[in-house]
Amino acid sequence: MDFTNKNVVITGGTSGIGLATAKAFISAGANVWITGRNADNLQKASTEINNPRLTTVVSDTSKLSDISILEQAFSKNGNKLDVLFLNAAIGAFEPIESVTEANFDAQFNTNVKGHFFTLQKLLPHLADGSSVVFTSSSAASAANLGASVYSATKGALNKIAQIAANELAPRKIRVNIISPGPIATPGLDSVVPVDAQAFLAGATALQRLGHPDEIAKTVLFLASDAASFISGTEVTVDGGYHSYALK
Q: Among residues 33, 85, 134, 150, which one is catalytic?
């Protein structure tokens, strides 16, 4: 797929799915902006990608002031935005009885409020006919133990994306959702022990964890002209996690 001279913003682009997708868009010729909360992690990502068409922006999307920083950083180039990949997310997994208000707020602020207001702030910069992709999760429709808050954030995100697809249709802006299953990322490593990861792999029909590159390829497809008649759709990329679990 060719994204030569297209402008792409990716929130949460320093590792995992975001970093893999940034690499894929760069390889396809795009100009890419990635955000992250940590300057050191952004520098590591920049060094790894090593391309002049990459711009890094220190921005915590759970804070409206930082979303404004992203908007200002993008608007400096004077061009329209062709692809917005709303990917930043955090997760904390614990039973309902253990959830604190701080953990609840942190997940909703990053996973829901951050996506909503990043979209709102960047709407004036989106080109007519552009593409918006939300990263949701197979957890949005599952009922995994300990995932009440995280799953709720992803369920809320799905509904926002579906409504955005209808609201932005007059501008021919397509809005879609990608819902990964268990993917081998640093984020997964930080919240799921190795033995539990083996269980997740065994719960997929393909009997393995997914790779960030596999998600990136799907994002590029949804953002491309090849998906020109796809909008308001959730694409599940989970190796058969749902279908296998239901057997």
A: 150
First to last CA, the chain: 36
Three-state SS annotation for the chain:
CCCCCCEEEECCCCCHHHHHHHHHHHHCCCEEEEEECCHHHHHHHHHHHCCCCEEEEECCCCCHHHHHHHHHHHHCCCCCEEEEEECCCCCCCCCHHHCCHHHHHHHHHHHHHHHHHHHHHHHHHEEEEEEEEEECCHHHCCCCCCCHHHHHHHHHHHHHHHHHHHHHHHHCCEEEEEEECCECCHHHHHHCCHHHHHHHHHCCCCCCCECHHHHHHHHHHHHCHHHCCCCCCEEEECCCHHHHHCC
Per the CB < 8 A criterion, the answer to whether 32 and 53 are in contact is yes
What is the rounded distance in angstroms from the CA atom of residue 152 to the CA atom of residue 104?
A: 10
> 7-245 architecture in CATH?
3-Layer(aba) Sandwich (3.40)
Distance CA 23, CA 32 (A): 9
* pLDDT tens-digit series, residues 75-106: 998 999 999 999 999 988 899 999 999 999 99
Give the global pTM: 0.93
Q: Is 150 a catalytic residue?
A: yes
